[in-house]
Amino acid sequence: MERPSNPRVLFYVQHLLGIGHVVRAARIARALSANGFEVKIAFGGRDVAAMDWGGAELVHLPALSAGPEGFGALVDANGAPVSDDLKAVRCALLTGLVESFSPNIVLIEAYPFARRIMRFELRPLIAAARKLYPRPLIVSSIRDILQEGRKPERITETLELVQTLFDAVLVHGDERFAPLDASFPEASEIAAKLHYTGIVAPEPAEPASGPHFDVIVSAGGGAVGGALLAAAAKTMPMSPLGNKKWLFLSGPNLDDAAFDALARNLPENAILERFRADLPALFASAKLSISQAGYNTVADVLTARCRSVLVPFSTGGETEQTRRAELLAAKGQAAWVAETDLTPASLLAAIDRALKLKSLSDAELPDVNGAKRSAEILDRLLRQRG
Fold first, then answer.
1. pLDDT per residue as tens digits for the range 335-360
2. Of 1, 88, 328, 351, which has the highest C-beta tally within 10 A?
């Protein structure tokens, strides 16, 4: 069947702490635009500078983020607890956007598997979409490894929402590498709605044409990566690559005091920056990456075929990054150190292990064409809808 001409996608993106979700969403948005979709991003977090959204139009909602105590509470752009009035404003903006844009697809990042705290506006958003005629496809967009240890009532709620309100779930991973039921055992109950896209990675990049770095130490968004950066700085002089060129990337959310302290203690053959838009190309020419085990950093490193040391974020019972690090290490694709065991000595040992890893071949790697395949799957679902 034919899909609608210039199909419209409304993509809800809300980051609360790090920027990993935003990077993945931007890659998907660029692929959708390249595939002929008209894309509007309902963007609900703090602005992320230098993010390339391709041909998508960004519609900013009043920014919300996680409070100091974590995901259990929201704060506004000034750090104040979110008021009911601000929630009402955002809800009205979202439902008005649905009505004015009249999308063929409503793509919702993370919900209902996560972002439960945003249901005050997501349930009205979905309700408004379901009132349109023809009704748009309502699709969830999730990463391949979810947080474990959920309460039974939350699992039941998630399953009911998928079964009653969602037409499909895009699982941004390779089923052979990390099937969803490994971290969400109840996935079999919604198997008919699951569509694996492959990992949403950047396009393979040529090695950087300008200055290159032998070792890249990165902390994702930076909100929780300060200890990793500090440990790597202390380890650098002892490393077999200690006399090479190192790049430390703090992320935009590392506080200024920690950033300045790190800058003062780096050797002359290391530089510190907050963000590099050409990071995939830098990985392609690097000998080693040292990072947390976030989705996007791992996608970048795998695409670049770069050896890596992973220090997964595990504070507060977080399990996703640890499971990813374990899977990669079991397949000989990375070395890893538990966050609780991070010292210069343990990091140095992991660097030695990583440098001894075999080079990665295509056959060993997960599928990393997730952005393109996401667009293709949504195209196919629209054609099936007719």
1. 999 999 999 999 999 999 999 998 76
2. 351
